[in-house]
Amino acid sequence: MQRTKVAILGGGFIADIHLESYHRFIPEAEVVGIYTRQADKAKAMAAKHNIPQWYDSIDALLADSGCEVVDICLPNYLHANATLKAAAAGKHIIIEKPLAVTLEEADSMIAACKKANVKLMYAEELCFAPKYERVRHLVKEGAVGDIFMLKQSEKHSGPHTDWFYDIKYSGGGVLMDMGCHAFGWFFWMLNNAKVKSVQASMNTVLHKNRTKGEDNSVVIVEFENGVTGVAENSWAKHGGMDDRSEVYGTGGVVYADLFIGNSALTYSRNGYGYAMEKADTTAGWSFTVFEEVFNQGYPHELKHFIECVRENKQPLVTGELGRAVLEVIYAAYASAGSGKKIQLPFTPRVDRPIDLWLHPTEG
């Protein structure tokens, strides 16, 4: 089997996760090169993961590595430039969240990939996490009736890497880092339903001496189809990572904790199942088991993108989703800054999204 050649841009925590995913779960892909901004780190990462070539220049990697796919795991402020370079070199691109710092950058990235006829996938792993995917399929089967509210939360005590706290590099705080997951999952669950309005509250409660960004936020997203999405995100929650989702429908409810247990707690008034004759066995409370695989969904999203490249298919999660998420982030910052509900579409011109909160008269 001829393997698809992949190059990794980045040497941090998320690059390690992607590399482990390729090595353990995706035999049809071969990581042939890695770039970091420091040569020593690039060399060390290559040695650690048995990667044949390392670079401290993106241009050199694109010219010499022979890769077909570029996997971007860089800090937020470097996403746009790396994408534009990779697209110009004819490489397919999968990129970590958030898609970009600004909407203008996002638009330029999407346009460049279309012009170069290369695939651009927005790496939102919650769209592939097995437990969350089992929940989505429950909804499609009619287990909870019509959805009227979605909730998603991700919380911990803060990132370990300094650049996350510097709004010049990140564009914002916990909303840019983790709120994007909730918004991406809302769009995924609702088949890209349009957003009507966004309202947010945020504050800096734990890391005041380290960042100007918010470290705790609550955002309410109203969709045109009548569904309400509630996103709770925090860098101020002690005791480790907490990641969970809730689905409320006219016929039931589902609670899914990504890190605890191997089932989603489900109440279905009428029951659910692949065949109606089996539905009565799942009426009431049940523990809906998901397939026990790397539960955050990273290998699944990467494997999907490699398949898209190999078989010339459109990725299920595209750059357009990343842009839609970024627009909601803009509106959330603006709402927190103004104390008002923000109607979409909302496309002010700012240097970084968090300016809409810190300096609400701008944009």
Secondary-structure topology with pairs:
Elements: E1 4-9, H1 13-25, E2 29-35, H2 39-49, E3 53-55, H3 58-64, E4 69-72, H4 79-88, E5 92-96, H5 103-116, E6 120-123, H6 130-140, E7 147-155, H7 167-170, H8 174-189, E8 195-203, E9 216-223, E10 228-234, E11 242-249, E12 252-257, E13 263-268, E14 284-289, H9 298-311, H10 319-338, E15 342-343, H11 355-358
Parallel strand pairs: 1-2, 1-4, 2-3, 4-5, 5-6, 7-10
Antiparallel strand pairs: 7-11, 8-9, 8-15, 9-10, 11-12, 12-13, 13-14
Overview of this protein structure:
- This protein is 34% helix and 25% strand.
- The protein is α/β, with parallel strands linked by helices and 363 residues long.
- The chain folds into two domains: 4-125 and 298-318, 3-Layer(aba) Sandwich (Rossmann fold), CATH 3.40.50; 127-295 and 326-343, 2-Layer Sandwich (Dihydrodipicolinate Reductase, domain 2), CATH 3.30.360.
- Helix 1 links the parallel strand 1 and strand 2.
- Helix 1 packs across helix 9, helix 4 (79-88) packs parallel to helix 5 (103-116) and helix 5 (103-116) packs antiparallel against helix 10.
- It is globular and about 55 Å long.
